[in-house]
Amino acid sequence: MSTQRDPAAEPPRPRRPLGAAGAALAIALGAEAPSRDLTVTGVTLDSRSVAPGDLWCALPGANAHGADFAAQASARGAVLALTDPTGAERCRDAGLPALVVADPREATARAAALVQGRPAERLATIGVTGTNGKTSVTTVVTRTLDALGVAAGMIGTSGTSYRDAHGDEHAIGTVRTTPESPELHGILARMLEDRVQVASMEVSSHALVLHRADEVVFDVACFTNLTQDHLDFHGTMEAYYEAKRALFTPEHSARGIVCVDDEWGRRLAREASVPVTTYTTAPDAEADHRVREIVPEGYGSTFTVDGPEGTRTLHAALPGRHYVANTLAAELLLAGIGRHGPEVTRALGEAGTVPGRMELVARTPIRGVVDYSHTADALDQALTTLRDVPGTRRLLVVMGAGGDRDRGKRPAMGEVAARLADVVIVTDDNPRTEDPAAIRGAVRSGIPADTNAQVHEVDGRGAAIDLAADLADVSDTILVAGKGAETGQQIGGIVHPFDDRLRLRTALAGPGGAGDDDTDGER
Length: 523
Fold this sequence. Notes:
The chain is of the alpha/beta class.
């Protein structure tokens, strides 16, 4: 998943780079050394972001070769290129000496780690993978550490940010869930420079296949779940699983925390090649840590866990079994880096909500919730959870599916919505370059003709949210699903400003809604 780059954010590189000699890089990468002495002070893949002293990595792409932009990289101050034999001549023609290797993408991560002084080895690092829950777990971990006064940062779908040793907040511009390896090692170096102690990171399956997270051996890694998504990239669920499994090898982690609520997790617990601790919320599953009882409490819940050292009680700030699982995962990850005890339990329970994850934007007389659920399984969890919240009358959902992504999940999402909601409004998510009407049609194709749900198809996400507010009545709940905390909508290659939370809050505060958006008491 890509995020939007904030132009006001800080750059993903340290202020005072350590650097590395070109000859040393050549030896480490198994390439022929450059003919002259030079020092590399940064690494980048993008010729537009080259800074003086950079190693510029020219990689082959699906439609073009990075070496086509060698002249631009040279003009901006690159001192050395890393490329394959195909790109070598073009780099040299632009005046850039080149380190030539067979797999420059894999070598890029090694180069970035070396130039930045291998920062991952000097931070406590947490990696979280899974179809759903990555952002929630890393956010809860980071907010818990913040409450404990520990300088911590997070890298993921909602962006990259950290609090330094002085308590100052920093936001770094990134555009992917897991940044490309030069950005990643630059970010970790910057965090280390500001005396951050813990970095939590979402590790996507794309990142594992494309070497973005290489040269980071996480102190502890977590697997949340696996459901259908990203098959446009991986092709099969087996390939998707294998990508996730790669995180639980000695090359990527020292130990694992694995949720065994699904068969993929149970398989991973057997096949991981690092020590693994398991956890579950399923009543009949066997695990090292088992959730035994969940009691709703406000908009969240209190739950008990049976573990090797006895029974303990934890609090989840958001409703639903999946947020119980996320909270337990966060606790186990914190314990994995040596953070445990009553003060951690207290801070964990007060860690608060996660932006765009079951976020309550209006409370009365109509409850308004925004969630990032963009797979059939995540939508099922969100709707089932909201149905069980005390006082819920009808459940209305505004949903769609993203364009240029896994098309196979669209009918399944429509089926789930119609099965679990009273009113389904099918609309546009991020159509990207696809025809929005065709995507809506694919979603609707999964809705049975004899469904009991009231089904609407609406062209335009804003109009769909407005319709939901018009149709809702006292004690109804509206779920706007799919985009979460995103602040833009991608249509035809253009990102248009759009925030589900703001639009839903405004719709419920208008005629026919009169919503109360003061939700502080339930956050």
